[in-house]
TrEMBL record:
Name this protein carries in UniProt: Calcium influx-promoting protein ehs1
GO MF annotation: an example: calcium channel activity
GO BP terms in the entry: calcium ion import across plasma membrane
Gene3D superfamilies: Frizzled cysteine-rich domain
InterPro entries: Frizzled_dom_sf, MID1/Yam8
Species assigned in the record: Wickerhamiella sorbophila
Length: 465
């Protein structure tokens, strides 16, 4: 067979695979293939799919330093990001998959289907890191979009393609890898790359629950990932399999959608233990000073929760003496209520009673060293007796909110600008949690979580005008 016929036969074989799966797997379809460096694969799109969304996912590549595959539509090249290239302009006819220059081979999946089938990637959820200790990590999704009374069947998206399936949070996949697993680090948007190697942990052994922590109290899914190795870097991915969109298709569609990822590391010492789902300090979820050889997580959670609840009792009695009801002019404030005061006090109290714990070896400039026997609260030294750790100090905004929201007669005040930095931390603009506050999540937009100091200043000026 001459070179021209061999090339034609190769293209015809790929075209046959693509067309067969295009017709049989309506939304979305996939064609799995291998391509060598410097090579090009050509596909002809069936007429009925010319206005569909096209998706190219790089599954494996020779090395992390290599470029991912490119998609050519007409005369334009598309390179995408994280191993995923999409094209949705319609008018598809012939498309090309092009491998970079170099050596070795790539594998990929090429899919085409209704653009609605990829809406989940943009509209549903993402994954964020909350905190970890030496063996556990807590992750949360972004706020969920549509809720049902039964939280085990939260609806994420309806009217999916022609078959109208219902996508729920329970059908999402979470997969955990060490950060050194081959090319998943650079192909983080490619479903087939993420699932190319077996994960260390998935949704079958992750503890899924729900929370509404945070100032807006929006419901999120949260995953507790247990049984991790200490001093280890991990990356977790949240994905959805296309096969679940049309389970009756034969063959089922390949690939899936990568919704988000979260990178984190476990601590090296045993001085910090992860607690969450507290009852009184319900907004707090992070590692606290602990002693794993003497306390279980449940025992530690109860200890801190009860300590804060006991301290709250005297404040509650004092607040009851204030003018919280009656005519607006008779109350202590026309802008704030006793409910605002109670909420701000509880947030402040929990932050100073339940310290956020970081590894002793951590080097952040915002961390306050706590040698053994020198915890913020004497009760921690007496009953928990943790090893040395570093504390993430409470945010100074918690103190500002307390002074703003509560009656002056209660006597709350914040340290002056020279002293406040000894007891409180400052919020970061780069997504890191550099001070402790309710519902803290790494790398989410922090713009509206708490009262900025300039807004507090405007409020104070308004009171005295």
């Amino acid at each position: 067979m001459d070179e021209g016929n061999a090339t034609f036969t190769k293209i015809f074989e790929y075209l046959n695979i693509f067309q067969r799966e295009s017709i049989l797997t309506l939304s979305p379809l996939g064609a799995a293939a291998e391509i060598s460096a410097n090579d090009t694969h050509i596909y002809t799109i069936p007429p009925e799919l010319k206005d569909s969304l096209l998706s190219l996912s790089t599954c494996t590549q020779p090395d992390q330093n290599y470029k991912s595959l490119e998609l050519v539509v007409g005369k334009t090249r598309y390179s995408g990001e994280g191993g995923l290239v999409t094209y949705s302009a319609g008018g598809l006819d012939v498309v090309q998959v092009i491998a970079p220059q170099g050596e070795g081979s790539w594998t990929y999946e090429l899919g085409v289907g209704p653009s609605a089938s990829y809406a989940l990637n943009e509209t549903v959820t993402d994954l964020f890191f909350v905190d970890s200790d030496f063996a556990n990590s807590l992750l949360v999704t972004s706020p969920l979009t549509e809720l049902q009374e039964n939280l085990t069947n939260i609806v994420l998206l309806k009217d999916w393609g022609d078959s109208n399936p219902v996508v729920t949070i329970d059908s999402l996949e979470i997969s955990l890898y060490t950060s050194l697993v081959n090319t998943s680090n650079v192909l983080y948007r490619s479903y087939c790359a993420i699932h190319n190697n077996g994960p260390l942990l998935n949704q079958k052994n992750a503890d899924l629950s729900y929370t509404n922590r945070g100032t807006k109290h929006q419901t999120r899914a949260q995953y507790l990932l247990p049984g991790l190795n200490h001093s280890t870097e991990y990356v977790a991915y949240l994905t959805y399999a296309n096969a679940q969109l049309n389970s009756s298709a034969s063959p089922p569609p390949l690939g899936g959608i990568s919704l988000g990822q979260a990178s984190f590391s476990t601590t090296g010492s045993f001085s910090c233990q992860l607690v969450y789902n507290m009852t009184f300090c319900s907004e707090m979820a992070f590692a606290v000073p602990g002693n794993a050889s003497a306390f279980s997580v449940n025992e530690l959670t109860m200890f801190y929760d009860n300590m804060a609840r006991k301290r709250y009792e005297n404040f509650s009695k004092s607040l009851e003496q204030e003018l919280c009801q009656g005519k607006l002019d008779d109350r202590y404030s026309v802008l704030r209520s006793c409910g605002d005061c109670d909420s701000s006090y509880r947030n402040w109290l929990c932050a100073i009673t339940v310290p956020r714990c970081a590894d002793w070896s951590s080097n952040g400039s915002y961390l306050h060293p706590r040698p053994k026997g020198q915890s913020r609260n004497p009760e921690i030294n007496k009953y928990i007796d943790p090893g040395p750790y570093k504390e993430v100090l409470p945010c100074k905004e918690l103190c500002y909110d307390l002074v703003r929201d509560c009656p002056a007669s209660l006597g709350f005040s914040c340290p002056n600008k020279h002293m406040i930095n000894l007891s409180y931390g400052s919020m970061s603009d780069d997504g890191y949690v550099t001070c402790s506050y309710p519902g803290a999540v790494f790398f989410e937009d922090a713009a509206h979580r708490m009262t900025p100091p300039w807004l507090l200043l405007l409020f104070m000026l308004f009171l005295f005008l």
